[in-house]
Design goal:
The structure holds two protein chains of two kinds. Chain A is an all-alpha fold. Helix content of chain A is about 70%, strand content about 0%. Chain A is globular, with a radius of gyration of 14 Å. By secondary structure, chain B is of the alpha+beta class. Chain B has twelve helices and 28 strands. In chain B, the strands form six sheets. In chain B, strands 1, 2, 8, 9, 10, 11, 19 and 20 form an eight-stranded mixed β-sheet that branches. The chains are: A mainly alpha, B alpha+beta.
Chain lengths: ~70, ~525
């Protein structure tokens, strides 16, 4: 796996981001929530840009799910 | 008034071949008088190869079918002597608009490249395209060219041999047998030739149904490609509108997966759908309606002994991207010069394997693009629809999302990277013209570069010395000497030199680059020519 994807803590306001993300979904129907998440993924993906980082992130997300 | 597709353009007439005791052997027989078969025949006959086209019908195709013809195929048609007529008859366009629900989310322009003779795209009914090619054949026949179309000649059986193919042909006056040194099967996606030879055709089949309609109406919509995702008049589905000549409009409406086809095809139901789209007050006539599903498939190999498959018989894509007829015409472009060399004994028949390698590579590129477009347009799962809609919503607000919108990635020519006919790149010039690339056009005063290339090997020198021609194993490359001073727009320099000050290109008869170097170095260019005809 490429080491370009940052997997050590990197958020400058971890609790704040989690809170903001959860609150953005307050009161939304599931369909609107799904759409919001999808838009957010594309915004973040475009910011990253590097397809190697994105591929690694996608794989990391898939693997983390299986380990639950 | 009868429509062109109602008129027999190549009515059955008895061929002397039918009265021969022994089957007559022809150099090339082509099955199918569609765009690909006609183009292949014109190309071969222009080079003096006697060519017979067999078609089970006697007229051009019914319905507009393939309508978008891209720049590269128009350049090929120029080489075949009928590009200008096609452009004159067609509707030129370069703008596409994408709508989501009721909003326009995105507009694109196919950049006009400075100094190219041909437009990015024309829309023209397939029947008109075929009509122009048939007229070109009639013109060539009048000049004595060895080309023949036999209408209502249906191939019923094919026998493959090492040196030829035997064809049993059914006609209104009974059957006869002919032989072909080479057979080119251009008989469409349901290719009877493929079936008779028991050959594979594998890939992905899509389940969504589409209603396709040609509507005759006077409307003042601009000449643009309009694509709708989830419009109010076709909820949850897509729609596409294209302008064709003679007030004919092409409409494609996605209908979804489980539908009653017979019910949907009834004129009253089609009219209801069209009125919802065009408005109650719109006055129009239906010229052609069809319901189709599509697949992205290809044969594993396009050459089977002395039989070559070209166009939809070899590979099929979804209609999004206009990659069907456009890629088929590039197949024809690839086949003709190679067959000429093989028939003249100047190349081994293994040269035809490079047709398979190069055009299968192109087919894979087309299938990949077409499959991705189809998956964007017809999402297979709830989540892929959510992701698709997110892209569309974002594209209305943010530029970054626009390249993600995929309503069809429009046909561009393939660069034959990795082809065995290419020599290693030996010029530090733009990638655009690397070995394997189709030559981009450039203005040369009143003329254009591409009109000086093609039909034979050309040694293009730009501010470089070289002999007037050189011959290798009976094949000649003729010099075309140019200078950046010939092109005040600097298009030639920008495309063929970049930062280099001089360049020498070996260009194939199909206008693809075979080799390039900084200077004419005889042993290298002799080797490159041998390689380009499959001898290295």
């Amino acid at each position: 796996m490429s080491d370009k994807l940052i997997l050590s803590p990197n958020l400058d306001n971890a609790d704040g981001f989690f809170d903001a993300l959860a609150r953005a979904h307050d009161g939304l129907e599931k369909s609107s929530s799904d759409a919001l998440n999808a838009r957010l993924i594309f915004l973040l993906a475009n910011h990253i840009g590097d397809s190697e980082v994105l591929d690694t992130a996608l794989k990391a997300a898939q693997v983390s799910g299986h380990q639950r | 008034m009868s429509k062109i597709f109602d008129v027999p353009l190549y009515a059955y007439t008895r061929s002397p071949d039918q009265d021969e005791a022994m089957p007559i052997r022809h150099p090339v027989v082509i099955i199918g008088a569609g765009p690909v078969g006609l183009a292949t025949a014109i190309d071969l006959a222009q080079q003096g190869i006697k060519t017979v086209i067999l078609d089970d019908n006697d007229r051009v195709s019914f319905g507009s079918r393939a309508i978008c013809f891209a720049k590269r195929p128009l350049e090929i048609m120029d080489r075949l002597g009928c590009g200008e007529r096609l452009v004159e008859r067609g509707v030129q366009w370069d703008t596409g608009k994408v709508f989501f629900d009721t909003r326009q989310v995105y507009e694109f322009s196919l950049t006009e490249e400075e100094g190219h003779k041909n437009p990015a795209f024309i829309n023209l009914q397939q029947y008109t395209f075929e009509q122009v090619l048939v007229e070109r054949i009639r013109e060539m026949q009048a000049e004595g060219a060895p080309i023949e179309i036999r209408g209502r000649n249906k191939v019923e059986a094919i026998g493959q041999h090492d040196t030829h193919v035997t064809l049993e042909v059914d006609t209104p006056e009974g059957s006869y047998t002919i032989e072909a040194e080479w057979l080119v099967a251009c008989d469409g996606a349901n290719s009877p030739t493929r079936r008779m030879l028991g050959l594979d055709f594998d890939g992905q089949v899509f389940e969504d149904n589409f209603l396709i309609a040609d509507v005759v109406m006077k409307a003042d919509f601009p000449s643009e490609r309009w694509f709708w995702f989830d419009p109010p008049f076709n909820r949850g589905q897509s729609a596409l509108l294209h302008k064709q000549p003679d007030n004919v409009w092409r409409i494609d409406l996605q209908l979804g997966r489980d539908i009653d086809k017979e019910r949907e095809k009834r004129p009253e139901n089609v009219m209801t759908r069209l009125k919802a789209m065009l408005g109650d007050e719109a006055e129009f006539d239906l010229e052609w309606v069809s319901i189709y599903t599509f697949q992205c498939c290809r044969m594993e190999r396009f050459r089977h002994g002395r039989t070559l498959f070209a166009g939809d018989s070899a590979h099929q894509v979804s209609p999004f991207g206009a990659r069907g007829a456009n890629s088929g015409l590039q197949d024809a472009d690839n086949i003709a010069w190679k067959l000429k060399l093989v028939l003249d004994g100047k190349a081994s028949e293994t040269l035809m394997d490079s047709y398979n390698i190069e055009r299968a590579y192109a087919a894979d590129e087309n299938i990949l693009n077409s499959t991705r477009s189809t998956e964007f347009i017809t999402p297979k799962s709830e989540m892929s629809r959510i992701l698709r809609d997110a892209v569309l919503d974002l594209s209305a607000h943010h530029e970054f999302a626009q390249p993600l919108v995929n309503s069809g990635r429009l046909s561009v020519p393939c660069t034959y990277d990795g082809s065995m006919l290419n020599s290693a790149d030996a010029l530090a010039a733009p990638d655009l013209t690397r070995p394997g690339s189709p030559c981009p056009d450039a203005p040369l005063g009143d003329d254009h570069l591409l009109s000086k290339l093609g039909n034979a090997f050309i040694l293009l020198t730009i501010d470089a010395d070289a002999p007037g021609s050189f011959e290798e194993d009976g094949v000649t490359a003729t010099r075309l000497a140019l200078s950046v001073r010939d092109d005040p727009t600097l298009t030639l320099k920008r495309q063929y030199l970049g930062d280099a000050t001089a360049g020498v290109y070996l260009i194939r008869p199909d206008q693809h680059v075979a080799a390039r170097r900084e200077a004419f170095d005889e042993p290298h260019f002799r080797a490159a020519l041998r390689r380009a005809i499959g001898k290295e």
